[in-house]
Design goal:
This protein is mostly beta strands and 286 residues long. Helix content is 6%, strand content 35%. The protein has three helices and 19 strands. The chain has helices at 44-48, 51-54, 171-177; strands spanning 26-27, 66-67, 75-82, 85-89, 92-95, 99-105, 115-116, 133-138, 142-147, 157-162, 188-189, 195-204, 207-212, 215-218, 222-228, 238-239, 254-261, 265-270, 280-285. A five-stranded mixed β-sheet has the order 1-8-6-3-4, with no helix packed on it. Strands 2-5-10-9-7 form a five-stranded mixed β-sheet, with no helix packed on it. The relative contact order is 0.15. Mean pLDDT is 86; it is low at 1-23 and 28-41.
Amino acid sequence: MKRPQTRRQYLQGSALAGLMGLAGCLSAGNSGQAVGGDPQVSDTTASTEPLEDWLADANGYDGSTRRYSQRDRPTVFVGESIDGELAFAPPVIEVPPQTTVRWDWTGHGGQHNVVALDATFDSGRTNAQPGTGYHYFFDDPGEYRYVSEPHRDDGMKGVVIVSEPPSTGNEVVDEWVVDSSNFDGTIVDETDAGTATVAVGVPGNGGHFAFGPPVLKVTTGTTVEWEWTDAGGPHSVAFQELDIESGEVVAEPGVNFEHTFETTGTYLYACTPHRSLGMKGAIIVE
């Protein structure tokens, strides 16, 4: 997995040896420390508390969820320092059923483990060795809350949400924008308009790092304008595999880029500096 280029830089973990199974497994690098242990007793009170209430004191949680597709290989970094506090990074992820999630130890903050409150999964004894890895195969939909036991009271919490991702019915589009947090499966239809507008820097992806709407449908001959909101810092518009782009990043509000679509097809684009956050969009031209 590529190291995300965000304002919260994640450390790259080393490769996890062994085959993925239905249960998780832990590798302890060269630490020589014993691993494994008995499953933990389920915490029914914390498991039934409303999710937002439970996450209120979760380190690194800013209200956003990182969504992954079936083809992704989601990785959570264990012991990441976010705003000076130890955290899982990202703290909340959403994956489809039948996805393997991997946790990689950064080596920061001493001893850690990964333990589900309902005892669904448990990495075993704590470990401090960087390069340690643990993985678990999620088959059933649900919310899986977990902690690092040594740092639970300090707010080191995480959640894996297992659910079917939103869908437009267009597989190419869905695969591209699935990790944009403001994508809900909706296609905004502007096929009767001569000009359509996409806002650049709307709320999403942990800040103002989204296009609004993320998916737009127009007819041939329509001019699409990208209008900057003056939020989220400098942005750009760059289409995939096409020589269509806004050029250098821009922070000034207003319409900073436009393009007239003369050929039918599906056009995918992203903000270059914030693509890894999920700042992506699609134009469907009929």
